[in-house]
Amino acid sequence: MQNKLLSLLLCWLVCLPAFAQKMQESQHQQPAAMLDLGTSMIAYGGELSKYASFSAMFQGRLVQTRNRWLNPAVELGWGKLVANNIRYVSETGTPNRSFNTSFFQLTAQAQLNIIKKPHQRLYIGQGIGMIRFNPKDDRNNALLNRPNTRATDESYSNFALLLPTSLGGVYHFPNHLGIGVEVGLMNTRTDYLDNISQLGDPTIKDNVLRIRFSVIAPLTYDSPERDTERKERLAKRREEIRLKNQREKEAFEQLKKQPKGKTNAAKPVKKAPTKKKTAKKSPAKNQQKKPKLFGIF
Question: Which CATH number fits domain 28-222: 3.30.420.40, 2.40.160.20, 3.30.1330.60, 2.60.40.10?
Answer without folding.
Answer: 2.40.160.20
